[in-house]
Amino acid sequence: MAKEINTIGVLTSGGDAPGMNAAIRAVVRKALVNGKQVKGIRRGYQGLLEEDIFDMTRESVSDILDKGGTILFTARCSDFRTEEGQAKGAEICKKHGIDGLVVIGGDGSFAGAQKLANLGVNTVGVPGTIDLDIACTEYTIGFDTAVNTAMEAIDKVRDTSTSHERCSIIEVMGRNAGYIALWCGIANGAEDILIPEGYDYDEQKIINNIISNRKCGKKHHIIINAEGIGHSTSMARRIEAATGVETRATILGYMQRGGNPTCRDRVYATMMGALAVDLLCEGKTNRVVGYTNGEFKDFDINEALGMNKGVSSYMTDVARDMSR
What we know:
Largest sheet: 7 strands, mixed
Distance between the termini: 61 Å
Structural class: alpha/beta
Number of strands: 11
Shape: elongated
Strand content: 15-25%
Strand order of the largest sheet: 3-2-1-4-5-10-11
Number of helices: 11
Order of helices and strands: EHEHEHEHEHEHEHEHEHEEHH
Helix content: 40-55%
Radius of gyration: 22 Å
């Protein structure tokens, strides 16, 4: 028989993502509606080990839907990767009466949640990462906002690139995943898109493409470069030397993590946070919430962490065709 959950904790871990606050708000208010107490944990697993824990009410999450970042803050925690740190975290949860925990973050955060579940703390993960690299779900909190932020920035770079008849290499975030780069490449009409899942590191192809387009009267050349490829500045120097075309690198960086969440990130984050609480109230543990085939679902964390995710070959084919 599943144990009854009385107090639910919530933390955000890893990289911040727009929409995390909407998920926090949903966890708090859904838990309170179900008669549960809620404890906020600041700065992720680091804050858990330091017992930076406080009571949360409806008022704690008022007027945060439109705010980027996370009101609970976030941090990396090397101590929590150790068995001693994990055992200490589980004991602190028990000390504060936290028998259910919602972890909002990426796959590294879920690995920590998995360890706590094995130590008797019911846990549910909510996918919060701009990288869209969690295999069990078609959506992760923050991706929609981040990709729109990057798209708008690239539009602006293209304007000045055209004015100066330049080649521009624009590096976007995504860690080792190419989703932001691929989506922006299609949305911004980039001439070349470099992603870890498909780049063959043949710069001569890019050089030939630039020269060919310039002969056809093209006034700019946009290359979207994924963070997992990187080295945009040195690449720009090599391309300029080989083509004679002025080439500049722009690294968008952390601006992609900030800003007001889009409607989709607010709504989907709310649905995922609420579902996480429902799962805990049902006595479930070691689960991760996801969105697939038009529905919000839950998966076993062990299975979720073992899944592999690749980019759509059809999307990459279309991106290539659109750039010709």
